Amino acid sequence: MPLQGPEELDALDRGIAALEQRRNELGDDVVDTALRPLLERRRRLVASGERRKLVTVLVADLVGSTPLTEALGAEAMREVIGRYFGHWREAVHEQGGEVEKFIGDAVVGVFGMGQAREDDPHRAVRAAVSVRPALARLADEVRARHGQVMSTRVGIDTGEVVLGRFDEWGDGDLVVVGGAANVAARLQTAAPPDGILLSAATARHVRGSFGLQDHGELELRGVDRPVRTFLVHSAAGSGFWSTSRGLEGVSTRTVGREAELARLTALFEDTVAERRSAVVTVVGDAGLGKTRLLADLESWLAGLPDPAWLLRGRAEPAHEGSPHAVLRSAFADRFGIRDTDPPDQVLAAWRRGMAAMAAGSVEGIEDVAAWLGFPVAEEAGAGRDVDPAALQRRARVALEAAVHAMCREAPVVLLLEDLHWADRPLLDLLTDLQARPRPLPLLVVATTRPPLLEEHPHWGEGLPGHHELRLRPLSGRDTARLVEEVLQRADEVPDWVRTLVVDTAEGNPFFVEEVLAWLVDVGAVRTTADRWTVSPTPVRPGTVPGTLRALLQARLDAVPSPERDLVDRASVVGRVFWDAAVDHLGTVSAAAPAEAYDELRRREVVHQRPTSAFADAREFAFRHVLLRDVAYDGLLTPHRRRFHARAADWLARTALESGRPDEHAGAVAHHLVAAG
Ligand SMILES: Nc1ncnc2c1ncn2[C@@H]1O[C@H](COP(=O)(O)OP(=O)(O)O)[C@@H](O)[C@H]1O
Ligand SMILES: [Mg+2]
User: Fold this and answer.
1) Ligand 1 centre and the CA of 286: distance in Å?
2) 518, 573: one domain
3) With a 6 A CB cut-off, is 291 part of the ligand 1 pocket?
4) Which residues, including other chains, have CB under 8 Å from residue 587's CB and lie 6 or more apart?
5) Residue 240 in domain
6) Potential cystine with 335: which of 146, 353, 441, 559 (Cβ 3.0-4.6 Å)?
7) CATH code for the domain of 670
8) Cα–Cα nearest to 514, from 180, 116, 246, 164
9) 233-236 long-range contacts, CB within 8 A, separation 24+
10) Are 449 and 283 a contacting pair, CB within 8 Å?
11) pLDDT digits (tens, 9 = 90+) for 547-604
12) Same domain as 565, residue 536
């Protein structure tokens, strides 16, 4: 795959600079004439908005297509290939990926191209797993008709690529080049027939969600270091609480959430004592420990002498547009219903489960199942209404009756995860419950990231059945305690590790774990023996660890383009930046409107600092160093250099005007060095 994009830009920049240097010698006319086409070409490349990006690339290829074509004949082969591509296209699209191209018989699917999602690696693996039955049917046909074996190999990698819309390459199509695309293609050739081979980078994201088998280290052509690889051997998900986080094989005690847990258990005791339902919304950024808090609540509930009914539902980005997915998942989890179960089995499990939990009231429960979207309508004759509104009315009455019946037996606790991905109907249901608490020992604990509250600013406000619990970042001391927890097998944890983690993780436990996992990856923490050892000499993170990056990149990708450009420029100025500096970095003195900063603040990307180092500029800071780093890493070198040069210029001038050039001399030097 070509690597022209950024390299061409670099070459152009060098050419332009060389011409500029010879302006005296050659004269303006000559130089300007020579420059014109170069500048034009450069403008087009830059306008294409190409960026480095973390994506997951899937490459699939047919094994032995040449003998297959010979045996089938060109025409039959064309038809088979057409269907083969069709299945892949469908599977990739269904998971929200894009098929970048078909090269020969190979399929290249990319996840995270436009809007990155933190579960892109999962989506890619799910696509590869879900297409298997259709491909197996096609292979059966080919075997029956032509006596030929047809198998597919798949390689998947997560990493950086350069994305661009280059006019010269097709009709402004997106082009993916470099890194991950290359590795995925090599993994594909190294995979066994009908195998799905993952790089360690992809495996790290999806472990816990798929059964993986270590496939050893492979030397891949065109990749300098050996790549550790994993084969997907089953699609079986793990339990409800994802095990994909944290350091492998280390279990930690929860630090610094005693008050939060106490608040939840007190609310539970209140609902039981007063027989009055309550809804708690646990709000916190990704990684702050919402899921962990629910898991701790669950352990606490499990230790009670009188057990409670527990239901656990989770919203997922993949469920977009499936209105009752969260409640459905709660019941599916409780009754052991899987997506792949045939309808008669689903209905039987549903009836059994409901009879056990809500023995007193099973009237109309098939309606509930149909309304939630379980495939039982035909089996049970339920949901026969063409009118969904009528079904909904009946189902809600039946559900409410069933919940009353459950509550007569024991208190009911409903845990709802990741409400920010939930659909309207669930939110309406919860709002109703908050507005009219029921005389029931029913506690709903829902977790969400802040965006939910941005979209529904008055969520639960003033409603009698509503409580909000904000998770704050861990204090520095608790962060240090968490470091000790994670590194519990190390004899000694040097100070530099604590300092590094406290500085970069900013109280976010997920970040703490990821930074430590990164230290393991780079060999600063050796985990080979029973006793771990930590290097006494400090290392500095040069790049943001991959899993973290996925999370942060998803947030940045959600930022619309004018603000996103601002973020890119600001990232060059630094963690702390000034609006006037960012304006100075722009091309045609395009001052960013004040609203752009408001938008970034609302999205919790930046915050404004109470005072500014410069009188005529507002001072801002990225909410996390790592957020800044991810934006910065996404810029191509030529853009970075240009921005650094302008930042040096602005800072030097402004510092001089403010009469304190010395304070900023170091920063100016840094920008000059980075400008090259
Ligand atoms: N207070 C804590 N003490 C120890 N580990 C924690 C704590 N909070 C979170 N973690 C760990 O940090 C990671 C992220 O937490 P998680 O609960 O998944 O965050 P969220 O659900 O808010 O995105 C998990 O591995 C979790 O076990
Ligand atoms: Mg969570």
Assistant:
1) 9
2) no
3) yes
4) none
5) no
6) 353
7) 1.10.10
8) 246
9) 234/210, 235/126, 235/129, 235/210, 235/211, 236/210, 236/211
10) yes
11) 677 778 877 887 887 788 899 999 999 988 999 999 888 754 456 677 889 888 877 7
12) no
